[in-house]
Amino acid sequence: MKMIKSTLAMACLAALSCQSAFAEEGSIQGLLTDNSQTSYIQGAEVTIKELEQSTVSRRDGSFRFVNLPEGKYTLEVKYLGAPTVQVPVMVSGGKILQQDIKLAARGKDFDTVVVYGQRAGQASAINLQRAADSIKSIVSADAIGQFPDQNAAEALQRLPGLSIERDQGEGRFVGIRGIDPNLNNVTINGVNVPSPEGGVRSVALDVIPSELIQGLEVSKSVTSDMDADAIGGSIEVKSLSAFDRQGTSASLNVQASQNQLRNDTSPKVSGSVTNVFDNVFGVAAALSYANRDFGSDNIESNGDDEIEQRYYSISRERIGAAVNLDFRPDFNNRYYLRTLYSRFADDEYRMANTFTFDGEDSEIERGSKDREETQTILSISAGGEHTLNDWLVEYQLGYSKADEKDPAGLYYTFVGENMAIESDMLGQIPQITQDAAAMDLGNYELDEVSLEKTFAEDTETMAKADFTRFFDMPSGSLDVKFGAKYRAREKTATADIAIYDGDFDDIDATMFAANQPDWGLGEFGPGLDRAGLRSYFNENGADLELAELDSEVESNGASYVSNEDIFAAYLMGRYEWKNLTLVAGVRYEATDFSTSGMRVELVENEQTDVEEVINTPWEGERSYNHLLPSLNLRYEFTDKLIARAAFTQTLSRPKFEDAAAFQIIESKTEEDDGEFVTEREAEVGNPELKPFESDNFDLTLEYYPGDIGVLSAGYFYKNIDNFVITADVSDLPEWDGFDEVMQPINGESASVSGLELSWVKAFENGLLLSANGTFSSSDAVTLLDGERFETSLPNQSDKIGNLTVGYESNLMSLRLTMTYKSENLEEIDGDLIRMEDAHQQLDFTSKYFFKQNMYLYFNAINLTDEGFYNYFDTPSVNAQYEEYGRTFELGFSWML
Q: N or C terminus: which one in the chain shows less Cβ crowding within 10 Å?
């Protein structure tokens, strides 16, 4: 790897030191702005008509053509929502022509459209999608502000083919076309984002406040200059840059929200400021703070003989900050520094009642969970780009770190035995009958207390360099791009768990009695005092009896370190001829993976009267490489009708917890009919797992009617090999003598195919309509307990859809949105198939403008009070029902 790093560094220096003399060809460069020259226009298609060469304006409005013969030409600028502009230009040999162009909207000033942001947000996203070489869906900063979305995940759910997994009603993980979020790639300003959570690769995008985002870009087909670990797709988060705007800008947003279920009011404030000094140096800074108090009511069952009631009281604090610097001494040289910091603190108190129905032996556990979990993400990147005649050189260094800390999670369990309780276990909300004794906390004894300290950290460093050579062709244009990238990643998970199971004689459960919580799903019973439980443990925990063996097993079995080094190199070309754009290339990725942890065995032997834990270090490693082609075609039948096709090969590396070096083994030797019998069970990771590999096919057709709007249809198909499943592998020779060994293994292939439909239209009378739907199917094979299950992919919904109706004028902006996700397979739980029920949510947002730069807004989230429901096999058998209530937001926004 040292040799690779040295080679990369030498390549960068050689390219930067290259000072080839300018030929007699000339160049054109310029900026696209609105009429008032206060906003840049991104995503416009700029074409030299006579040469049939085109480019797309960047986020700072800039565009450039190089290697142009002397002569007279016509620049044509196309941007949906604005009339086509044609500008005559004269190119002189060896000279650079600066040609700035202003755009105006149809029937009104373009700056007015930008200020009243619904049309602007749609226009920007649609134009970027139209001009892209690959298949993309885009959310602009203006569009993010038009929805009552709390974070990046919720902003993405509005796009075709995207859905979210929720936690306590808030969007968390993003799925693309129904693929597991662990199989997506997420970057911030080009730097891969590690996951704060211990065992996964998926990034919980709820840690990124929407106020810090300039745009979100989802690539559904990749090109060879992109990371290959994107079977679902790649999500790029772009933060604010000073050169996104002209001169000085500022914004301030203040909000209060109320959750009806808990009747709590919560504050939120955010702001940003940008400034460009002498058109050379730019500074952009943004800060966001929110503290949301809310909760949920929950009831769960195992589908057989157990029901659990849960009451959640939650406080979530989000702090986000970004400081970005840009230095552009001239049009040909750019340097930047990008930083983003996000802190997400989840303070949760849960009370739970677990009912086990067994006739006269029925029992109830009343327990509590008291923890404050904090997740942070830090992303720093620095780089530059230089235009050297017909070369473009780009380079970047990046560092990102994510961690999750729970320094003192405290759990109590009280048990009441021989309780008179009954339930028919039916319905979304199964009802429980319990007598007065079951409701009396004095009939319960403390059974267990545990203190859990967990920490997970994921760090990644990155270096990359890209070189593009522009060739002058007799017809059309050819760009050849090549480069390399190196990534080093380390994932650490540690646990320090102390389980106490004795010396509870002087503890009376009534010492911790609290008022019955306001739980809306039935009769909950007495509450438990959070402060009292924590105070008692702090004062008396040292005197409790520690279950040393259980504590050791739980701690060592959940701790491991994994390292992953990835080297990638690619070569690709972009050829444009008349109406056809072809982007083709090949990417090579080499992966070195290593992991170290523990083989932890709990031995309980009645024959030898031995109880002990045997800890043995365990390490594993694996290396593999892939050569991955990609092909993206774009063909313009007319200015309004565009077809795209793509074939790509991608991969996704296994989840860290699946490939980690850990083994948790329980070995029990007990007497049975005069003989001693040993039973052994294990749960183990698998460092030998192969990565997922996928062949991806895409075909889309897009129609742009000429104004702000698009009608599109697309077909996709993915064939995934090495799909990871969890199975009982005790029949393998290395597990001889074990009764059960659950381990992730590479299974049979899986496939997913579907149709994406989308329609967006902004009318001149202020009406805005948007609708999209994804209809898909999937097939996968799961092996469990020796049985072969043919199912759909986990989290794969057959139908995903969005519907938006909006209206805007110079005084107001209104938008009503609906998101829908059909039922999907959650998991196979024993002999039961656990399904997630369909979810349909209705949100409303409105704005009243005092001035163009000042408005009051009101949002209503989850208007129909939609809950979350999982069931076993049939909808009448509860697995989990949870409700969150409606949330209302009132805020004020000012922009300069």
A: N
Tokens of 872: 């076993």
Are 871 and 837 within 8 A, CB to CB?
A: yes
pLDDT tens digits for range 196-232: 877 778 777 766 666 667 778 889 999 999 999 989 8
Structure tokens at 602: 């709990």
- Taking alpha carbons only, the member of 48, 116, 49 closest to residue 847 is 116
The answer to whether 307 and 355 are in contact (CB under 8 A) is yes
Nearest alpha carbon to residue 606 among 547, 683, 674: 674
Q: Which has the closest alpha carbon to 501: 557, 544, 532?
A: 544
Q: What is the pLDDT of residues 262-306, one digit of tens each?
A: 888 899 998 889 999 988 999 999 898 989 899 999 999 998 899
At residue 15, the pLDDT reads 41
Q: Residue 154: what pLDDT?
A: 77
Of the CA atoms within 13 Å of residue 62, those in its CB half-sphere come to: 15
Q: Which pair of tokens denotes residue 675?
A: 């003989």
- pLDDT beneath 70: ranges in the chain: 1-24, 36-38, 105-121, 141-151, 206-212, 782-789, 829-830
Complete domains list, the chain, with CATH = 152-895 (2.40.170.20)
Cβ contact 722:692 at 8 Å: yes
Contacts of 776 (CB under 8 A, 6+ apart): 177, 178, 752, 753, 754, 755, 796, 797, 798, 800
Q: 530 to each of 369, 412, 512, 522, 556, how far by Cα in Å? A: 9, 10, 8, 22, 29
The whole-angstrom separation of Cα 682 and Cα 684 is 6
pLDDT digits (tens, 9 = 90+) for 41-81: 888 889 888 888 888 888 888 888 887 888 899 999 988 87
3-state class of 419 per DSSP?
coil
Q: Which residues face 815 on adjacent strands? A: 806, 845
pTM, whole model, 2 decimals?
0.86
Residue with tokens 């199964």: 430
pLDDT of 787: 65
Residue 149 φ/ψ, nearest 5 degrees: -90, 135
Contacts with 102 (C-beta within 8 Å, 6 or more apart), sequence order: 32, 33, 34, 35, 37, 110
Q: Which candidate, 290, 442, 454, places its Cα nearest to that of 371?
A: 454
Q: Which residues contact 143 (CB under 8 A, 6 or more apart)?
A: 117, 118, 121, 122, 124, 125, 155, 158
- Give backbone dihedrals phi and psi of 791, rounded to 5 degrees, phi first: -135, 180
Instruction: State how far the Cα of 547 lies from the Cα of 543, in Å rounded to an integer.
Output: 13
pLDDT tens digits, one per residue of 720-736: 998 887 778 888 888 88
- DSSP labels, 591-640: EEEEEEEEEEEEEEETTTTEEEEEEEEEEEEEEEEEEEEEEEEEEESSSS
Give the integer Cα–Cα distance in Å for 516 and 526.
5
Listed in sequence order, the residues at least 6 apart from 840 whose beta carbon sits closer than 8 Å to its beta carbon are: 818, 819, 820, 821, 864, 866
